[in-house]
């Protein structure tokens, strides 16, 4: 099973000259070269820029792209709230650019690393699993980041049970037959995800940078727009569907090597997984959003992994 994540982003020379000039003015340096990072699901520039004064990672997107522009603003704000030591690049600045109808640019520390292998396996997968555990080991006070329980979708499965959209029948018959049961589990998800841990909220292979090789490889998380405060198991569990959807091992195999944090409640994981499953199924049945044509296929692949995982966990 493989999910489609490859995309081609605009490169530095393809964005409007006025936008490039505004970024260079903010950098205080001339851009002399760039490397585009084409993974992920959002449109817009995502490049390591080489300048007369060193390197910097910059993301920029037109305001007209709506969600992606808001995500840039949100990421800059939430990264500023992360505790010291969280494995992430440093955020430098956010800039609203008036040129060409409006753009939103954010700059971060450039990490001299590499993307994880695809499919995720071996040392690279181990590094990602350790990263997920490490993020969840940091504690944060209430109010410093949004509560996970307040920002995750917890009604998607109940919506599927009530509306029975035509596309639902294309999924595993077990899920179709048990969607009300899964919706009942989903109702417990808001309480299940409460906690004091830092949560990345969207940890996948394309949201990580690896430094080093072999057993000493270390991972840093990027793309913190969904960061929040909640349960310590979220990022490790959230990583697993994308691993298997991309051709890596199934969730149970990863958890056998990298167990969930001590004290994790199995019922809480089931409730969280019920909500995640409903989200992926529901979203996969929606029309593709502008500029991200591959997103629904990716959500479909993740939904199928979640359904199979949930079915095994519920032993039915």
TrEMBL record:
SUPFAM superfamilies xref list: Protein kinase-like (PK-like)
Superkingdom in the source lineage: Bacteria
Pfam families noted in UniProt: APH
Domain Aminoglycoside phosphotransferase: 49-259
UniProt xrefs under InterPro entries: Aminoglycoside_PTrfase (IPR002575), Kinase-like_dom_sf (IPR011009)
Name under which the protein is recorded: Aminoglycoside phosphotransferase domain-containing protein
Source species of the chain: Isoptericola chiayiensis
């Amino acid at each position: 099973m493989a999910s489609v994540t490859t995309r081609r982003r605009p490169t530095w020379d393809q964005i409007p000259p006025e936008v490039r000039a505004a970024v260079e003015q903010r950098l205080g340096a001339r851009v002399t070269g760039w490397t585009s990072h084409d993974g992920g699901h959002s449109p817009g520039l995502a490049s390591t820029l080489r300048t007369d004064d060193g390197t910097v990672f910059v993301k920029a997107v037109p305001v007209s792209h709506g969600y992606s522009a808001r995500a840039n603003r949100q990421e800059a704000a939430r990264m500023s709230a992360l505790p010291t030591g969280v494995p992430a690049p440093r955020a430098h600045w956010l800039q609203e650019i008036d040129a060409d109808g409006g753009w939103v640019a954010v700059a971060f520390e450039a990490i001299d690393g590499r993307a994880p292998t695809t499919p995720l396996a071996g040392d690279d997968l181990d590094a990602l699993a350790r990263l997920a555990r490490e993020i969840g080991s940091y504690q944060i006070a209430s109010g410093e980041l949004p509560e996970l329980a307040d920002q995750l979708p917890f009604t998607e499965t109940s919506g599927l049970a009530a509306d029975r959209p035509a596309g639902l029948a294309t999924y595993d018959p077990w899920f179709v037959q048990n969607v009300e049961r899964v919706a009942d589990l989903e109702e417990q998800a808001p309480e299940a995800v409460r906690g004091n841990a830092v949560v990345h909220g969207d940890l996948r292979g394309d949201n990580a940078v690896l430094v080093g090789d072999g057993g000493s490889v270390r991972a840093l998380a990027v793309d913190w727009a969904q960061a929040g405060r909640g349960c310590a198991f979220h990022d490790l569990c959230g990583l697993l569907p994308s691993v298997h959807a991309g051709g890596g091992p199934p969730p149970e195999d990863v958890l056998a090597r990298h167990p969930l944090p001590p004290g994790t409640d199995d019922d809480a994981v089931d409730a969280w997984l019920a909500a995640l499953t409903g989200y992926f199924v529901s979203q996969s049945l929606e029309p593709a959003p502008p500029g991200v044509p591959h997103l629904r296929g990716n959500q479909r692949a993740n939904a199928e992994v979640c359904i199979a995982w949930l079915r095994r966990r519920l032993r039915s």
